[in-house]
Amino acid sequence: MSAPTTLQSLEIAKIREQFPVLHQNVNGKPLAYFDNAATSQKPTRVINALSDYYSSYNANIHRGIHTLAEKATKAYEQTRFTVQRFIGAAEVEEIIFTKGTSEGINLVAATYGRKFINKGDEIIISGLEHHSNIVPWQLLAEEKEAIIKVIPVLEDGSLDLETFKSLLSHKSKLVAVNHASNSLGTINPIKDIINKAHEFGAKVLIDGAQASAHLDIDVQELDCDFYAISAHKVYGPTGTGALYGKRELLESMPPYQGGGEMIKDVSFEKTTYNDIPYRFEAGTPNIADVIAFKEALDFVTETGKQEMAAYENSLLAYATKEISKVDGIKIYGAAANKVSVLSFLIDRIHPFDIGQMLDARGIAVRTGHHCTQPLMDHYGIEGTVRASFAVYNTKEEIDNMLEGLQRIVKFMK
């Protein structure tokens, strides 16, 4: 039987049952969690995987031959295969485990960047980027005397692709952009960006932190050179994630850190390094959370990412329509294609005040610059209120938020 085009209310109720944190009161009110762009909640299967590792087979991986070590190693490496399938990588060796998207980007900057980017070379980023996809390139550019160029953001929150094309030249060595904006929800046309960058010989890194829970990802079809994700954005644990890189690029890159696992042989005269991906995974890794990461990805796959996205988009459309009725509201981010992020301000009311008063009603939203200060500067604001929706959210929760906003406007004005 084919899957429904959207998830029905009964199915949402069953999904909500899998997330224990949702079933509580905050400030005497039922929790409505709308901070999913910052971190998504975790289903019971993820929590159980963490507990099961520590209570049943806690052991270090790869180097032990005893039963617990072999079981832990197998579970850890199963996650690598799951990530490979989840993002469509050609080979499992192209998947490197990291602390998250930020470390994945830093790894590329510190290895590929230091080896292949030189004085006068150009790195192109966009005005939509999270600080994690800005600062590593600034550090590299300062060290190598390279030049950073920025793709402008249009008023609706989409990228100025005509200007992007004009920025490209044979000095362009790397383009780093997000798949979807954490602040505005804008989905960037990364396939077009990748194709155009490759015409000039530039490599492309995609920040997939916000896309991983919402969009189908096929790194081979996209032909990106690097793609970074975080587990905690896609119903998994914090402190782990994955970096995809094309085999030929990873094999050309020096190690990121030194230590156990990333070596073949060590002597005081010379060290030889391990094969990929282990060359980039020095030391004892975050074993339990990597193992639990598999359960998060399996949850998304089994629920159906396309069905989840359709449902989340219906929540976004409803919230966008209804919030426009609030007096003094201004929405930031009106691109045609978005993930389920709604950023807004209300005239003459500080976003922190809105966030605190919503929290008093048990509604969790994010306020501030969302680690995108250059984007906020572009709009001439300090920050926004951001409500971001996941598959376990409901129309009723949105109605409660909208009622709260109406009350805030009435009280403050």
Top keywords for this entry?
413 residues; alpha/beta; Aspartate Aminotransferase, domain 2; 2 domains; seven-stranded mixed β-sheet; 14 helices; globular
Molecular structure report:
With 413 residues, the chain is α/β, with parallel strands linked by helices. It has helices at 9-17, 44-56, 67-87, 101-116, 135-144, 161-167, 190-199, 219-222, 247-252, 287-303, 305-323, 351-359, 373-379, 395-412; strands at residues 25-26, 29-30, 32-33, 95-98, 122-126, 147-151, 172-178, 203-207, 226-230, 241-245, 263-266, 271-273, 329-332, 341-346, 363-364, 366-368, 384-388. Strand 5, helix 5 and strand 6 form a beta-alpha-beta unit. The chain folds into two domains: 9-30 and 305-412, Aspartate Aminotransferase, domain 1, CATH 3.90.1150.10; 47-301, Type I PLP-dependent aspartate aminotransferase-like (Major domain) (Aspartate Aminotransferase, domain 2, 3-Layer(aba) Sandwich). The chain starts with 8 loop residues before the first helix and ends with a helix. It has a seven-stranded mixed β-sheet, with helices on both faces. Strands 13-14-17-16 form a four-stranded antiparallel β-sheet, with helices on one face. A two-stranded antiparallel ribbon has the order 1-2.
Structural class by helix and strand composition: alpha/beta
- Tell me which oligomeric state these chains represent: single chain
Q: Tell me the number of helical segments per DSSP (H or I, 4 or more residues long).
A: 14
The CATH superfamily label of the largest domain reads Type I PLP-dependent aspartate aminotransferase-like (Major domain)
Give me the CATH fold name of the largest domain. Aspartate Aminotransferase, domain 2
> So, CATH architecture of the largest domain?
3-Layer(aba) Sandwich
Strand content: 15-25%
Radius of gyration: 22 Å
Spans of 5+ residues with little confidence (pLDDT < 50)?
1-5
